[in-house]
Amino acid sequence: MTDWYRETLHAHIAQELAIDRVVxxxxxxxxxxxxxxxxxxxxxxxxDGVAQTTTRDEFIYHEMLVHVPxxxxxSPKRVLIIGGGDGGTLRRALEHPIERAVMVELDRTVxxxxxxxxxxxxxxxFDDPRTELLIADGCRFVKETAETFDAIIIDSTDPVGPxxxxxxxxxxxxxKRLLNPGGVFVNQGGVPWVQSQELATFFPRLxxxxxxxxxxxxxxxxxxGGIMTFGFATDDPGLRRQPVETLAARYRAxxxxxxxxxxxxxxxxxxxxxxxESLIAGAA
Length: 284
Ligand code: SAM
Known about the structure:
This protein is an alpha/beta fold. The chain has ten helices and 13 strands. It has a seven-stranded mixed sheet with strand order 9-8-7-10-11-13-12, with helices on both faces. The chain has a four-stranded antiparallel sheet with strand order 3-4-5-6, with helices on one face. The chain has a two-stranded antiparallel ribbon with strand order 1-2.
């Protein structure tokens, strides 16, 4: 008899993942956390009924969330990551010659259990001397810190529960204050075919703050309903328009080993289908 993990993120559709083995289940201080094995995805991390990441397809989301902004920037030195408790985002950021990565994660248990049961995601990133891990609410951190960054990466849960504050205009404004000139902000923007309100709600808030706000996408199998989107915002319009040749030269110089990101995929990711363009066209 197979047990199934039923994801309850969407109103009228759900996905179920066969549970081969529950590795760990705990109500943390902030969230219901489950780590389980699945024959297709490998090991799965789920929070509050939502599948977050898996050992088999995490590379797609984390490569695009990190390499698109950092390769576009060209010479990031200080990176801020909000969320990202599994460590996959931090690991990719440290593949760049940055000097410092500050990661602000709300839930210490997510980090500890990801390192223990899904170590391939962080692959030692939390022990990198460039890493500073802070256990705090990201919304509060950006309000209080005086530090500035070249890239700010929001790897949050969906805008429900503890992640909701990471989609507000106030949070975005506080992040903008922390960006160095020529800096770039990215966040996870949900799957617009099933979460159209997410993009339509937060994107105008980015557009109001930055000279150039845009969206790029990736096909992440775990996030059902079609392409996954990411917000990309900067006051340097040139960042998004880097020629593929420039991206390719940087990619080679970095020596990145990737399974989904490539210079061509980077450039193509900003091409959006009309139904997504229409969701963001109304932005101020
Ligand atoms: N890739 C996933 C996605 O797109 O849904 C997100 C992965 S990561 C596990 C999401 C992280 O955001 C979790 O570790 C969660 O604890 C963290 N988080 C949620 N709200 C937060 C907040 N207000 N401040 C900092 N971290 C937060």
